[in-house]
Design a protein that fits this description.
alpha/beta, 12 helices, 7% strand, globular, MT_TRM10-typ_sf
Length: 344
């Protein structure tokens, strides 16, 4: 989904005899470069803080163990540590089982059907495909935490897109529908129930209908492909609709959101039956206008990262071992997935 094609012009960097960038395009490009540099710097700082925290905890534990007055005291400390870890592992297993049961009930008909359309991979750059992969992870994490999860589908999950999602830790165990074919093929017998969610639609979505199948376009387009999802819906003869954002807040820029933001808004609406609550919970303060400025506490920007962190932590090794080793494993998995996204 996209609003405006100006960034597409900005992306044409002068090479050889290519025309020079306009003044506005240069300003836009410089702004994007500054934002990318700040993002990379922030990510590097976060990574270093995580490493320092893991090292601090390990060092404090070793110092406490070394300071024990006797061998018996050290053994008691080790036993208590193992017991705490076993309790934590047991709780994680219990929570994982409860989440799996909720997702199975959703797949059996209790959940709202939501499709992530992954047929746009050929229009995206490699770093954008990586960004979309991370957004899919956010969606799955949010869905797993929800008391009323959706019946989530990935369609068009083939080619480069299929390769990337297969690299997600634990993807083969996800309780989610994975289709290499398109949603038109997957839902050929109920095409009349398909509704493509796009910011360019004329119809405003007031309620979520359990009989409908809502499609979210998996496109990280950097504003190069204005109106492409709406055009796709029109060409295919299926319904389209947009979220009622304008009725509840004034956006500081466009009303185009990321895939995971759209999905989380839908999940929050299912939970609260209140669009305003859903929007303010999910949409970052930086994207809101005046209406959002007074309610920044309602939408912490770190929510998506917390969901991803929890999703990755659940894939950590459950064998006995030190807390520092487990945290290092989680940090390594997080880094493997995010490292290339630092360029996006």
């Amino acid at each position: 989904m996209a609003d405006g094609a100006e960034s597409g012009q900005a992306g044409v960097v002068a090479e050889g005899n290519a025309p020079q960038l306009s003044k506005s395009a240069k300003k836009k490009l410089l702004k994007q470069e500054r934002q990318a540099a700040r993002k990379a710097e922030r990510k590097a700082g976060e990574k270093e803080r995580r490493r320092a925290d893991i090292e601090r905890r390990r060092r404090e534990w070793e110092e406490s163990l070394a300071a024990a007055p006797s061998q018996e005291a050290r053994e008691a400390m080790l036993a208590a540590r193992r017991e705490t870890r076993l309790e934590r592992v047991g709780k994680r297993v219990e929570e994982r089982g409860a989440r799996a049961e909720r997702l199975r009930r959703a797949a059996d008909g209790a959940g709202q059907k939501v499709v992530l359309d992954l047929e746009f991979a050929d229009l995206m750059r490699p770093n954008e495909i990586h960004s979309l992969t991370q957004q899919i992870m956010y969606c799955y994490a949010v869905n797993g935490r929800s008391a009323t999860p959706a019946h989530l589908w990935l369609t068009g999950c083939s080619g480069e897109m299929g390769t990337q999602v297969q690299r997600i830790p634990g993807f083969d165990k996800w309780i989610i529908e994975k289709e290499s074919k398109s949603y038109l093929e997957a839902f050929a017998d109920c095409k009349e129930n398909l509704v493509y969610l796009t910011a360019d639609a004329e119809t405003v979505l007031d309620e979520l209908d359990m009989s409908k199948i809502y499609i979210i376009g998996g496109l990280v387009d950097r504003n190069r492909w204005k109106g492409i999802t709406h055009k796709k819906a029109v060409d295919q003869g299926i319904q389209s609709a947009k979220l009622p954002i304008g009725s509840y807040l004034k956006m500081s820029s466009s009303q185009v959101l990321t895939v995971n933001q759209v999905f989380e808004i839908m999940q929050k609406f299912v939970e609260t039956k209140d669009w305003k609550t859903a929007f303010f919970h999910v949409i970052p303060p930086r994207k809101r206008g005046e209406a959002g400025a007074a309610n920044d506490d309602d939408a912490p920007e770190g929510a998506a990262n917390e969901d991803l962190d929890e999703c990755l932590e659940e894939e950590a090794n459950d064998d006995d071992g030190g807390d520092g080793d487990e945290e290092a494993d989680v940090a390594n998995k997080r880094h493997c997935i995010r490292s290339e996204n630092g360029k996006s």
